Amino acid sequence: MSILKFENVSKGFGQGLHRAEVLKDINLEVEEGEFLAILGFSGSGKSTFMNLIAGLEMPDTGTVSFKGQQIKEPGPERGLVFQSYSLMPWLTVAGNVGLAVDAVFPKASKAERAAKVEHYVNMVGLGHAMARRPAELSGGMRQRVAVARALAMNPEMLLLDEPLSALDALTRANLADEILHIWEQDKKTCILITNDVDEAILLADRIIPLNPDGTLAEPFTVDIPRPRDRIEMNHHDGFKTLRAAVTKYLMEVGIEAKIEETRTLPDVTPIHGVPSAVAKAQEGLIADRFLDFSQLHKVYPTPKGPLTVVEDFDLKINRGEFISLIGHSGCGKSTVLTMAAGLNPISKGAIKLDGRHVEGADPERAVVFQSPNLFPWLSAKENVAIGVDKVYPNASQAERQDVVEYYLERVGLADSMDKGAASLSNGMKQRVGIARAFALSPKLLLLDEPFGMLDSLTRWELQEVLMEVWSRTQVTAICVTHDVDEAILLADRVVMMTNGPQATIGKIVDVDLPRPRTRKALLEHPDYYTYRQEVLDFLEEYEHGAKPKPKPTAIAAE
Q1: Which residues fall within 8 angstroms of residue 244, CB to CB, at 6 or more apart?
Q2: More confident: 29 or 145
Q3: Phi, psi (5° rounding) for residue 52?
C-alpha cells in the first residue's frame, strides 16, 4: 500500500534570470514500511525533496500526498532528523527528547512521559547520558539524541536528511547500524537522504539517484537479504554488483567529462631545483628511500608526565610512490604528516627527504589540509600565485601565470579562476588547495584528509582530479585518510596505524592494482575486495580502542 505519493512535482527558487529549477516532474510512490534511500550530489535538490515531504516547502506544481491527503504543513506523523543536530543547549538529553514526548502526548501522566523518554533514549544507546547537556556530548551522541527525539514523536514515517554526513567514518558507520536496528524493530516507513552509496545499500530496500538536473533516475532494488552486516557484505556478490552499478551511474551523470585539457605546462625551473620539464634536473634526486622515516617518535609534555603519541614509526618510501596512511581517530596519522611537513618538531628519530634531514617548513614539501586555508579576499588565481611567485623566481610573469592557470584548469576551475575564494563552495576551495600544492612542483606532497569535509560524491570527484594530476607529476605523496576505499584507490601501499597513544605501524598492504586507476575499474577488478577486506579486518580489530600487538611486517620499499 502506498503511503507517500509525488505527482508531477516541480520546485524552484528565485525570479526571472535568477530563477533556478531544483526539482522537475517528480513522480514517486513509497510503500508503507519501505526503507527508501535518495542518493545524489550536493546541490541536486535532495534537501528540497525532503522539505516537501516534511511540509516545510510547497511544490510549485504537482502534489505531494501522505496517506491520500495533500501535505500542506508539518505534522507529527512525519518525524524529521536534520543534518545538524538542532538541540536545545540548555536542556539535557532527556529534556531534549522530552520536548517531543510532551508535544505528542500532552495528556499522558508525568510518569508515562518519563517512561517514553527513557525508552527512546535507551533505543539509541544513550541511557548512561540522560543527564548530560549537548555541549558534553560528541557529534555522534548529539545526532543520536536527534534520532531519539524524532522517534519519540512515534511518527508513521521517519525522514532522515543526511543525518550522518557531519560525522567521522567510524561514528557514521556505528550510527547507521543503530538506525538499521531501530528500523528493523518497528518497520516504520523511512526515507533517507544520503550521499554515501554503501550507507544506502546497507539500509535501503530501494535506492533512487537524484540527477543533477533535478529529475529522479530509475530506482535500484536492493535485494540483499536482511539482516545485513557491513563486513559480511564485502564478500557478497550482490553487494559488489549493485555497488558497481550505482557508482557507475553516479559517476556518469555527475563526474565524467569534467576534467579539462587545454594548456601545456611551461618549461620552468622552481627554486628548489626540481624542474617541471627538464629531465636533467631529476638526476639529483635519489630513487630508493627517497623519503625515510627512521624510528620516529612524538612525545608531548603533560601535567602527568610525557605522553608518547607516536613511537618507532619506521617507513621507507621510494621516489614517486603514493602512500595512504589510515587508522582510527587519535592514532597519530596527522602527527606523522605534520612532522614530515616540518610543522611539528620531531621528539626522537629522523625524517630524511632526498637524503637531507627535514628541518622546518619548506615549499619542497607542499601540504593540502582538510580545510583549504585560502585567503578569502583573493581570487582562486591569486591564491595559487602566492606560492608560484616564490618558487619560480627566475621565470617570467607570463610563465608563472601559465603554471597557475595550468593547474587550476587541471582541477576543473577554468571558469572560476578569477572568482573570490569567499564565493567558492567547499569543494571548489579544496580544488584551489590541490592546484596550489601541485603548482609548487614539490618533492613531497602531503595530504591531510583533504576531502574529509566534503560529501561522498564530491569526494569521488576530487579523488579523480587528484589522481589525474598526480599521474602527470608522479610526485611522491602521502595521504592521511579514514576512508578505506580512498586509501586503496590512491595508493601504491596502504600503511595502517595502531591506536594511540604509542601508535605505530601495525600493517602494510601493497596495492598491486593497475594505473591509471578509476573507481569504476577498481570496483570491477577481482582483487579489489581482497585488499578492501585486509584493511577492514585491521580497522575492525582496533575499532573499540583495543591495542592488539602489532603484527610483524616489512617496512621498506625494496
Answers
A1: 520, 523, 524
A2: 29
A3: -65, -40
pLDDT at 555: 43
CA distance 195 to 42: 8
3-state secondary structure of 301: coil
**Separation of alpha carbons 341 and 356, rounded Å:** 13
Q: Is residue 438 helix, strand or coil?
A: helix
Distance of CA 154 to the CA centre of its chain: 32
pTM score, whole prediction: 0.77
Non-local CB neighbours of 309 within 8 Å, separated by 6+ positions: 298, 299, 300, 332, 335, 500, 501, 502, 503
Strand partners, 23: 11
E strand or H helix at 230, and its extent? helix 230-233
User: What is the C-alpha to C-alpha distance for residues 466 and 451, in angstroms, rounded to an integer?
Assistant: 11
DSSP 3-state percent helix, strand, coil across the chain (nearest 5): 35, 20, 40
Cell of 315: 617507513
Kindly state the DSSP code that residue 289 receives in the 8-state scheme. T
Structural contact between residues 39 and 212, judged by C-beta atoms closer than 8 angstroms = no
Cα–Cα distance for residue pair 517/358, rounded to 1 Å = 31
Cell numbers 552499478 correspond to 245
Give CA separation, 106 vs 45, 285, 465, 473, in Å: 36, 75, 55, 66
- Phi, psi angle pair for 315, to nearest 5°: -150, 135
Confidence band of 429 (pLDDT split at 50, 70, 90): confident
Asked whether 226 and 502 are in contact (CB, 8 A), the reply is: no
Distance, in Å, from the CA atom of 283 to the CA atom of 278, rounded to the nearest integer, reads 10
The candidate with the shortest Cα–Cα distance to 462, out of 514, 427, 438, is 427
Other C-beta atoms lying within 10 Å of the C-beta of residue 309 = 18
Q: Is the peptide bond before 306 cis (omega within 30 degrees of 0)?
A: no
Provide the CB-side half-sphere exposure for 58 (13 A, CA).
5
**Residue 357, strand partner residues:** 352
Integer CA distances (angstroms), 335 to 308, 347, 357, 412, in order: 11, 11, 17, 31
Say which residues have a Cβ less than 8 Å from residue 122's Cβ, sequence separation at least 6: none
Are 195 and 160 a contacting pair, CB within 8 Å? no
C-beta separation of 327 from 503 below 8 A: yes
Bridge-partner residues for 190, per DSSP? 35, 158
SS3 505: strand
Residue in the structure block whose three cell numbers are 613511537: 311
- What does each C-alpha distance from 23 to 20, 48, 81, 210, 368 come to in angstroms? 9, 8, 21, 9, 35
What is the residue whose three cell numbers read 592546484? Answer: 435
Q: Tens of pLDDT along 462-492?
A: 888 888 888 878 889 999 998 899 999 999 9
